Amino acid sequence: MNPSQVNFNSPRKFRTTLKSKCKETFFPDDPFRQFKNEKPLGKAKKTLQYFVPIFEWLPQYNLKMFRFDLLAGITITSLAIPQGISYAKLAEIPPIIGLYSSFVPALVYAILGSSKHVAVGTVAACSLLIADTIGSKVSSKDDPTLYLHLVFTAAFITGVFQAALGFLRLGILVDFLSHSTITGFMGGTAIIICLQQLKGLLGVNHFTTKTDVVSVLHAVFKNRHEWKWETAVVGLVFLVFLLFTRYLRQRKPKLFWVSAMAPMVVVVLGCLLAYFTRDRKHSIQTVGSLHKGLNPISIKYLNFDAKYLPYTLKAGIITGIIALAEGIAIGRSFAIMNNEQVDGNKEMIAFGFMNIVGSCFSCYLTTGPFSKTAVNYNSGCKTAASNLVMAIGMMLTLLFLAPLFSYTPLVALSAIIMSAMLGLINYEEAYHLFKVDKFDFCICLAAFFGVAFITMDTGLMISVALALLRALLYVARPAACKLGKLPDSTLYRDTEQYAEASGPPGILAIQLGSPIYYANGNYIRERILRWIRNDEGNGKAVKHVLLDLTGITSIDTTGIETLVEVLRMLEVKHIKMKIVNPRLEVLEKMMKSKFVDKIGKESIFLCMEDAVEASYDFSVTAEKQGFEEQRSGVA
Amino acid sequence: MNPSQVNFNSPRKFRTTLKSKCKETFFPDDPFRQFKNEKPLGKAKKTLQYFVPIFEWLPQYNLKMFRFDLLAGITITSLAIPQGISYAKLAEIPPIIGLYSSFVPALVYAILGSSKHVAVGTVAACSLLIADTIGSKVSSKDDPTLYLHLVFTAAFITGVFQAALGFLRLGILVDFLSHSTITGFMGGTAIIICLQQLKGLLGVNHFTTKTDVVSVLHAVFKNRHEWKWETAVVGLVFLVFLLFTRYLRQRKPKLFWVSAMAPMVVVVLGCLLAYFTRDRKHSIQTVGSLHKGLNPISIKYLNFDAKYLPYTLKAGIITGIIALAEGIAIGRSFAIMNNEQVDGNKEMIAFGFMNIVGSCFSCYLTTGPFSKTAVNYNSGCKTAASNLVMAIGMMLTLLFLAPLFSYTPLVALSAIIMSAMLGLINYEEAYHLFKVDKFDFCICLAAFFGVAFITMDTGLMISVALALLRALLYVARPAACKLGKLPDSTLYRDTEQYAEASGPPGILAIQLGSPIYYANGNYIRERILRWIRNDEGNGKAVKHVLLDLTGITSIDTTGIETLVEVLRMLEVKHIKMKIVNPRLEVLEKMMKSKFVDKIGKESIFLCMEDAVEASYDFSVTAEKQGFEEQRSGVA
Fold first, then answer.
1. What membrane topology does the annotation report for this chain (chains A, B) (predicted)?
2. Which residue in A398, A500, A570, B525 has a CA-CA distance of 20 to 30 Å to B621?
């Protein structure tokens, strides 16, 4: 027997457990640890630095860091211009909005953002989702002004929603968007966006507003007479060029700047081509007028009319969650590579303010897109100052160069979008999911096919629902296993996993999975009964049932009732029940509900070995002696 | 070191794991075990007996059992008549339907039911819920025929839904209706039903169709001028009499038949009173005409018009789930008392057919109500034959006695309903929940107040959502704890629970809660980092992180990625990571995803003791020697 015993101290107070649970739920990263041993002035300074990270890195900033940030900033600016125009076309808003959206939000993020690597910009999936949701109420062609104002409003709602999540420390919500869901969602989105680009690539004029594969392909082939082979040839050349530069980057990572600059090259070449062919009959379609000047103020255009609110709310909240998931996940993954930390809730506040301020200055939804952030990281950025450089670059572009880009051919934009999207279809990840976890693969497939064949939000929701179902199924059917003693040791392990482990005669040792909740009470009772029946069916009389609760961290009242019922059922069968290693919370509930009094403190043990020994002390049988001899042979 | 090692056998095949998971999810009670060693003829016989339980008990049936069943059957018949009429009034359908509903369904259950104690009948909560849902589309006053047909249709839908759940082995759905939810729901329903009875008790004519407390009280007090003191006095006398018999039963359980017969006594007294006062000016309101004759066929009235389908579907499915939860839970709890088993899925099929057949013979929703089943059990019923006796009793009543009950005063019904409902408000249970588990108490309160102040289905849904949220929160924030070695033993236990447990120097031993899923990957990473920071903050260098996975029965791909990230982060900090006791499924996923290759097989241990020893073999430090001395002193 071990000298230590189960600790039956009186349960912790409700306030203590509530406080500890709230802390684990909302502050798992313990963000205020650094304030503990500070004086008031130091505390104020740290608080300011905590909420406005620029004060944290600016004092240590030096020229050497700036040289890196400048280079990174210029690189991402050259990417931001073509991407901004392209994605604005996807969102069916004027292309200049795309340029605006890389200016003001980048400034805000440079001040509030806590990640060193995130580069701010618009994203394709969310742009299409906005067009899809708002477009279902207001047509971007029939009433472009109202449509644009609703897009600003959606961005404002996104911002408020994101900031609220951050302040309320509800980063936990974003955790429920699983990696499998995102893989499938991105893949599906990439497919439908690529197909949409056939419009630009083939020069089709009449198109559908729906996003699913069937509608889009139908629209493309119905309008075969509109196909223009000149546009298609130019587009394919551009696409091949872009894909080649991407391939080059994959082979020689040092040449990342080639692929980063390629879209800009395509735009410039396209502009030249469009400029020189502008008087021909079959002239190439271009994005059209881009006026000089900085972001106009748009706060007065925010439209909270009850007629449109359901649509702006839906667009704002869904894109808000997706944008957070992308931005935070990307910031985190680069931070992990450098052994740094990113505070998810702080990032949410930064993204939130970025969108609130942005929506007041003619910007639509921005986040930290994967492609831009990767380029930023590869260009060697050191701090969020690279966003500042991009903002200045964008400002100069808006003030002096914007009109030049009005010659950008639509076909160049389509090629840029297509090449970006093809990179988002992650075959390897899907195959990895298939190999490791079939359920994760199903979640991924659900998102992929849902997005591709129904609508983007339906696909996303089906996938999230499947993922939640899995978590609930886990709770409803916790794994439980029969334990056996490993030869020549004191360890009790799963008999299915370790074939050599064998149960002591007359004893049924069971390890329950976690937790014992209302959803699995019936299951656990049935499962225990089945083991007893099986053992008895095999001619082994069961005298003791030992429940190892090591893995059980939580129990509710129905769970306790289940244990009481099992105890009662076993009593009728003249079987003794023993509890092994109840954890803190479980033991507390057992004491509060008087279960401990019912089963008796002498039936609760600290480890399996003790419980087995105690079982033999009470039941001296012929079998036991045999087992004792075997044990003494071991010792 | 233990002689046994972690078993790195190649992972099981997908088909094997899928089969075992499906079995645990859908067949946890292993219903076909009895067919295993049977010949074809025996198998056919057992299958028939399995699906039609009457073939199981009828061959062993004898006169002695029949004597008990006869007594029980007569007792529940005397309860079924007043209850049937009362609850039919609650559902706002002709009272005769209530009598029909104890005839045909009881016959069906006697053949198909697997519980020996369940007595079939209508229930108050579902009756009101049907009235509420269907009444929101079709008024029972303006179009009583259509309303009645929709009630039959809802019962038919309930039956199909219940039978389908049973055949698909989806009993798991009912498991998600927790005991806390049911306690709160029943309490809230009891309150609103009691308040509704004020209408009958005070003789008010104008009333509301809403069910919430505020509307009902408003309706009662607005129509003060309609109050009739004569009715109120009679009602109160009846109510006091009924409550007294209930009190008597609680004090002397042998007198259960007094309280079982009391409603019948009230009805008979009420009828006599109404009969003799029938010519007075202020005559007592009675239920009105009840025709002789058995259930008319109603299959031709089932109405699947798309206009009403959403309402009948909603009523059918919600009441179906509640009825199942009540019927199965009650059958189970009485079976447990007698050390018998009730197969939930089989019961669902029985309830389902009962309602399908019932709805074709002018019956509305029936299940195994608590009050009737308890009376049946206390009367000593031996088999489902007591339902057969009740069906015959009901048939005789319908054929010969029905018109007599047309004098039943509404006030007597109100008193019967109120006294039944007051027994459903389970203060003690709510207090027990409050003491043992505050979250369960909140779930209960949500159902109670939701039902009492909003609507019945809203209350139910809020409560179920809260319960699901809890299960999800459990998955999102699994309990993890720091382990320390108990003095003079080889056991590692939670340092918070066992203050004397202390961590070996340089080693951070962590026990993770189950499971590692996408929803908690970030949390687990942060939590591990926080422990390392805390230890380092306290001046203890961490050289090894030992993750005890004993409690982890499941992991998904994001979970594996989390472990990879933790491994990478620890490598940067020059900390070694070791895995202790991975369970079967977890180890399989680790092998499939090559995590085992990344961390190395030599870093995976069977028990904490081995992992700690191995850590010291690799890191000979001054600290270690101190710890070694301490250990040798122990051994």
1. Multi-pass membrane protein
2. B525
Distance from the A392 Cα atom to the nearest Cα atom in chain B, whole angstroms: 35
Report whether B120 contacts B368 (CB < 8 A). yes
> Is the bond preceding A478 in cis, omega lying within 30 degrees of 0?
no
Banded model confidence at residue A633, pLDDT cuts 50, 70, 90? very low
Minimum-distance CB partner of A436 among B24, B336, B593: B593
- pLDDT category of residue A367 using cuts at 50, 70 and 90: very high
| Digit-coded pLDDT (tens) for B554-570 | 898 889 988 998 998 89
Final residue belonging to a domain, choices B451, B472, B493: B472
Residue B538 burial (CB < 10 Å; 0-12/13-18/19+)?
Answer: exposed
- Whole-structure pTM value: 0.82
Residues B316 and B192 in one domain: yes
Residue B376 pLDDT more than 60?
yes
Residues A446 and A515 in one domain: no
Parallel, antiparallel or unpaired: strands A492-494 and A481-485: antiparallel
Same domain for A499 and A572?
Answer: yes
Indicate whether B367 belongs to any domain.
Answer: yes
| B343 in the same domain as B412 | yes
Whether the Cβ atoms of residue A351 and residue A193 lie closer than 8 Å to each other = no
Contact by Cβ (8 Å): A29, B530: yes
Mark which residues 500-559 of B lie under 8 Å from A by CB.
500, 513-515, 517-523, 526-527, 529-530, 533, 537, 550-554, 556-558
Give the gyration radius of chain B's Cα atoms: 31
Q: What is the amino acid identity at position A15? A: R
B120 with B172, same domain?
A: yes
Half-sphere exposure of B219 (CA within 13 A, CB side): 22
Domain end position, chosen among A452, A472, A492: A472
- On whether ipTM exceeds 0.85, the answer is no
Q: How many distinct structural domains can be found in chain B?
A: 2
| A568 touching chain B per CB within 8 A | yes
Q: Is residue B30 part of a domain?
A: no
Contacts of A34 in chain B (CB under 8 A): none
Q: Is residue B400 part of a domain?
A: yes
B125-138: average pLDDT: 91
Q: Which of B341, B519, B572 sits opposite A175 (nearest CB)?
A: B519
Judge contact between B547 and B584, C-beta under 8 A: no
Which residues form the domain of B208?
Answer: 64-286+293-472
DSSP string, A368-415: --HHHHHHHHHTT--STHHHHHHHHHHHHIIIIIGGGGGG-BHHHHHH
Cis peptide leading into residue A94 (ω within 30°): no
Report whether B283 contacts B407 (CB < 8 A): no
Shared-domain flag, residues B463 and B494:
no
**Coil, strand, or helix at residue A204?**
coil
Q: Is residue B126 part of a domain?
A: yes
Residues B309 and B187 in one domain: yes
Same domain, B211 and B86: yes
Q: How many CA atoms lie within 13 A of B528 on its CB side?
A: 27
Instruction: Tell me how long chain B is.
Output: 635
Q: Distance (Å, rounded) from C-alpha A525 to C-alpha B597?
A: 39
> In B396-487, at which residue ranges do the beta strands (DSSP E only) sit?
481-485
Give the list of residues 6+ apart from residue B607 with CB closer than 8 angstroms, or none.
Answer: A491, B2, B580, B581
Nearest to A179 by CA among A337, A28, A342, A326: A326
DSSP H or E segment with residue B604:
strand B604-605
